[in-house]
Structures are given as structure tokens and as C-alpha cells.
Amino acid sequence: MKNKSKYLADLFIGQSTVFIDVIQRIDKIAEFSVPVFVYGETGTGKELCAQAIHNLSRRSNKPFVAINCGSIPDTLIENELFGHVKGAYTDAQSNSGGVIAHADGGTLFLDEVDTLSQKGQVSLLRFIQEKEYKPLGTNQPFHSDVRIICATNADILSKINTGEFRQDLFFRLNIMDVHLPPLRDRGQDIELLAEYFINKHCDVYNIPGKTIHPDALKNLQRYSWPGNVRELEHALLKEILLADTPTLYLNNLESQYTKQQQDLAQMKPLFDLDFREAKEKTVMSFEKNYLDNMMKKTAGNVTKAAELAGTERRAFGKLLKKHGLIRSYYASFAC
Predict the structure, then answer these.
(1) What pTM did the predictor assign?
(2) Residue 35 needs a FRET pair 20 to 30 A away by CA distance; which of 10, 90, 238, 260 works?
(3) Residues 20-43: pLDDT tens digits?
(4) Based on the domain organization, do 78 and 171 belong to the same domain?
């Protein structure tokens, strides 16, 4: 690629130090045809990162094949990876290549690799070690030259410690690594991303340009964005499509932030308790809120509320008494 700097600047929006470090790392490791493990929370752009590594590599003119490991049943994993020959099973009417064959010469991206079954992990490890695979229904080995990039939003080391993920496979996949920062750690990048997404979607939907109110921008920057960049884009798209004015106020986001702060305030004292006490307090809070919601929905009709909750009326009544909830109070919630 002739102009790598422009490609990266157009693809990755952000100027925070932590994000610039990631971009530079992507640029550096792209040229080495070794496995890469991409770590990051949901919505941080793991597939975008994998695509960039591929596009900046010597394999860029070959296929980039992406699969989500969590969507593949254990019974189909070998067929998905290695394909099959005609007659391999009842419905195999013709030869069909798997993703490893389709990605030959290029890059195979395995998203949510931590969800691979033990069987899938063994099959993948064998391919990495031998650089060969056998489609279902034949003993003839085939060679495939692929670069594997995998990603996870899970604590992979914990999964290794519990035996859910093979340590030997991890060592094979984790030659290079990229850790994508959550949006809450990227400071002023939020404003840059917001401007980018507003311009992008106004163009896509042929909507006159819009700007964010200064107070709304403050809300963007103080919200923790558990869904990261993806959540930010979707929140802005919703506002863009529904706004009747050229200024975006993001009132819905303000309510989300308020609820988030309330939830955090309620959770914080729990961390000062031991596990048993914290669990008991959490369960009590859930029960009371759940019962309150059911009673409001049914305007205090205990029988209907119990049916909605999927429990017996007598047991439901005991819970109401336990939490001091009075049936007559809810009569005013009738439609």
C-alpha cells in the first residue's frame, strides 16, 4: 500500500495517545505474517483492526475471510473450517471448501475464538501445527497458507485457567497482540467520532447537517459507553433520524447517564461487604423491584401478577409480604 498513513487516518478516527499507540502497532505488525490476537470490549472495532492488518500486509490482494466462532455448532465446526467432499454425509451433493480453503493466501479472522468448543480448538491447533487439513469424507491432506487473526472480548487467561481454552492453542495464536482501548479511555476522541458519525449519516440519509449542543457533548464525554464506538454510532444515528432541529440535544442519552450513575451508586456499597452479604442484598433488591413492576403492570391484581411472574399465587403473596408491598397501593396504576 502506497499511502499507509492516509489509509489509517481515514479508517481510524482518534487522536488520543492510547489510540495512536494502537494504530502504530497495527501498522508495524501488519508486515509480519504471523498470528495476531486482538483483545477488546464489545464495539471497540476488533474486526476493523483485523481488516486493517490484512490490508496493510503483503496478503492484501488475497481473501479476507471472517467467521464468528460463537455461531458455529460443535457438530459443524470441522465442516466449516475444512469443508467436505461429495458424499461425505447424506446432504453432501458436491465438494465444498471450508473457510481455510477460501482464505488460502490471505487472512482468516476468527471472532470470539474463545467460544470454540474443545473439538474445534483441537482441529484448529492441528491445522496450525501441520499447515494441512483434510476435508470431511477424505483422507487426502490439503495445504493452505493462511494468516490467522483472532479476537475476543472475554478474559482469555481466566478461560485458560479453568480449562475452557487450550493453553497450547493460545500460545500458537498469541504471537502478536493488539489491545483496543475502550471508548471511555479515549478522551477527546469521542468528540471527533461524534462529528464523523453525524456527517456520515447525514450524507447517507440525505439529511441537512446537524451539530451537537455543548451540553449534549458533555453528556457524550461523561457517559461510560459500555457498547463503545458501536453504541456511540447507534445512539447518534437514532438522534439524527428523529431530530426536528439542526441541533442534537441527546436527551435520551442524559437519562441513560443518570440511570447508569444511579446503578453505580447502588452497587458501590456492595463492594464493602463480603460475598454472602453482597449477594443477599442484591437478590433482595432484585426481588423487590421485580415484584413492584409486576404489581404495577396488573394494578395490584396478585393473581395476574403471579401468572405474569410464572409462579404460584401463594408464593407470590409471601414475597409481597416479605418486602412490605401493599396490594391496595397499586390500584391507582390501572389503565
Answers:
(1) 0.75
(2) 10
(3) 999 999 999 999 999 999 999 999
(4) yes
Same domain, 217 and 320: no
How many Å apart are CA 147 and CA 125, to the nearest integer? 14
Q: Domain containing 244: what range?
A: 186-267
What's the total number of domains in the chain?
A: 3
d(CA 305, CA 331): 13
pLDDT in tens, 174-213: 999 999 999 999 988 999 999 999 999 999 999 999 999 8
**CATH code: domain of residue 298:** 1.10.10
Q: Which of 240, 267, 294 corresponds to the end of one domain? A: 267
What cell was used for 311? 409462579
For CA atoms 194, 29, 55, 83, give the dihedral sign: negative
